[in-house]
Amino acid sequence: MVGEMTNNGRIRPSFPVKDLTSNEGSEYGPVEFTREDVEALLHERIKYKSKYNYKERCENTMDYVKRLRLCIRWFQELELDYAFEQEKLKNAMEMNEKHCADLEVNLKVKEEELNLVIDELRKNFASVQVQLAKEQTEKLAANESLGKEREARLAVESLQAALTDELAKTQGDLQTANQRIQAVNDMYKLLQEYNSSLQLYNSKLQGDLDEAHENIKRGEKERTGIVESIGNMKGQFKALQDQLAASKVSQDDVMKQKDELVNEIVSLKVEIQQVKDDRDRHITEIEYLQAEATKQNDFKDTINELESKCSVQNKEIEVLQDQLVASERKLQVADLSTFEKMNEFEEQKESIMELKGRLEEAELKLIEGEKLRKKLHNTIQELKGNIRVFCRVRPLLSGENSSEEAKTISYPTSLEALGRGIDLLQNGQTHCFTFDKVFVPSASQEDVFVEISQLVQSALDGYKVCIFAFGQTGSGKTYTMMGRPGNLEEKGLIPRCLEQIFQTRQSLRSQGWKYELQVSMLEIYNETIRDLLSTNKEAVKADSGVSPQKYAIKHDASGNTHVVELTVVDVRSSKQVSFLLDHAARNRSVGKTAMNEQSSRSHFVFTLKISGYNESTEQHVQGVLNLIDLAGSERLSKSGSTGDRLKETQAINKSLSSLGDVIFALAKKEDHVPFRNSKLTYLLQPCLGGDSKTLMFVNITPEPSSTGESLCSLRFAARVNACEIGTAHRHVNAKPLDYRLSLG
């Protein structure tokens, strides 16, 4: 039987049964025994057909023994299964006991937690009871207040009558307001018409912008052609110069040969003259000897000898005459060659003069094209409202590594990036940047000022202008803005701007313009504003490094920023402003660090307010020029600042970090710009977020150890260059207005 059910319902496993009588050990099929089969097998009696047939009896007995063996083997297998099941159940029981122990532990933990919860609930219940008592007290107070409210309600009802009268009066006011609303609606229609006209004007500006782009592209193409023609002309000019040099060399050789031949001819003529003189002398002697020979026949041998000498000298004279003729022919040929070279030299000289004229004309066209490109670029930048960025690289100082291998800054020479691109090498990787202008270390203060002179002129025209210098400490910011004291050629941008403004003011008087100028100077030191023009030294600095007087920054509705109680001085000449600058420089906070002997420890803000009035046109312009020298960013690991220098460094880095946050917000055009995070950004708010023409100088150092700081400065400058702060507007009024000095 296979798979037969037992009494308890479990299927017993089957196993193979071997035929014990088989010599090959063949197997029977699987056999299953039940309780009835075992009992039948045990109580079975062997039946025989014949009592005396022993063979049959033996076979039946063997068969019975085989079945008994199979049964025994089946019992053994069953016993093994039961033992396996028992072991399995034992393991399961152990696991269950372990699980029960874990459950008991968890139950104890839960019981403790529940006890804690119960304690907490009891505490809460006590607090709730206290709160309930409090609420009951408040309820009694509320009932009392309800009584008071009822009394107040009666008072309100008494006031209702008065309000009714007020309502009638309000209705009259409502009618008046309706009339005003009608007037506002009419004004709204007018504003809509004005808005449509502004849209038309905006579309016109867009067309002008597209035309300016086309002019720029055309100018770039013409410039490329002019540069190529200049290159070709320079090549031709160089070739002609080489030819001219070769001609001069060959002419010098010919002249030397001519001089040698002339000298040789002169020497030959002298020798011929000597020979002729000898011949004449000999002939005279012969004649004399012949005369004597007639007298004396003894001298015949001497005469013959003299005649032989004379014939030899005649032959020498003939040879020398032939040499003289050949030399004269050579001289004629040399003269002809010299004449041809002189003619060729004159022709080449005329060609060179013509090429020089064409080269000068092409350079003038190139300069005019560059001026037009700058003008169109500035127009586009103003229409876009971007912050313009100039980059200036200071020269290497004595003691700094100036080898070719250590150079980390290079300048691209392509037409697109010429004068505007800068490449920085760090750890084998080149970082490329493009700005509005890049000044190489050899650029002078005059070269830098020429690029910003038109922007400074905008302040006289009624615009708000802001120029500020940014960079790490020791990168040349103060030198760019202030220059070197006592050296006229190295004057900074601030004195040069003032000279230009006073000169232009003088020249505009003939056109009816009169200007009034006011100056203020301040510094932000450790997040505190200091008045640098104050005559009270205690108001400028205190022993603790904090100004005792508070200068508050105020913004008005017109977008101007005022510093309360700040000293404002009327100025009438550039010398007066120079005196004020020297006074402010003496009051400014400077200190020595490991990176800079004279490090500016504060942000310096120079403000010039310009108020102009034209008597003939009755126009009044209001311009502001802000020139700012920011303190340099620095790393404590390099500057080695301690004590007061450490506090200054932390304040400087914090304010510059706030400036970076403002630039990030402006670049992403976020709704909230964190101008209030520092005094610096709050003071610069009209320059960064208003209608100001803003220019930033990013100053970097070429020293290889400062490559990391230079890369950070260039990346920050690139983000500033991408910011759009709005289009600047000219501030012109029909009548003059009296207003206070502001930062824009």
How is this structure best described in words?
This protein is an alpha+beta fold. 60% of the residues lie in helices and 14% in strands. It contains 13 helices and 19 strands. It has helices at 35-42, 54-295, 300-384, 445-460, 477-482, 493-507, 537-540, 574-587, 636-639, 644-667, 679-683, 685-689, 707-721, and strands at residues 15-18, 27-31, 388-393, 409-410, 421-426, 429-434, 437-439, 464-471, 513-525, 528-531, 553-555, 561-563, 569-571, 590-591, 599-600, 603-614, 619-629, 693-700, 732-733. Strands 3, 7, 8, 9, 10, 13, 16, 17, 18 and 19 form a ten-stranded mixed sheet that branches. It has a three-stranded antiparallel sheet with strand order 4-5-6, covered by helices on one side. The protein has a two-stranded antiparallel sheet with strand order 1-2. Helix 2 crosses helix 3 and helix 4 crosses helix 6 (493-507). Belongs to the TRAFAC class myosin-kinesin ATPase superfamily. Kinesin family. ATP binds at residues 471-478. It comes from Camelina sativa (False flax).
Helix segment tally: 13
Low-confidence stretches: 1-29, 736-742
Biggest sheet architecture: 10 strands, mixed
Overall SS class: alpha+beta
Mean pLDDT score = 78
Strand content: 5-15%
Distance between the termini: 110 Å
Helical content stands at 55-70%
Radius of gyration: 57 Å
Q: How many strands?
A: 19
Shape: flat
Organism: Camelina sativa (False flax)
Keywords: ATP-binding, Coiled coil, Microtubule, Motor protein, Nucleotide-binding
Family: Belongs to the TRAFAC class myosin-kinesin ATPase superfamily. Kinesin family.
Binding site for ATP: 471-478
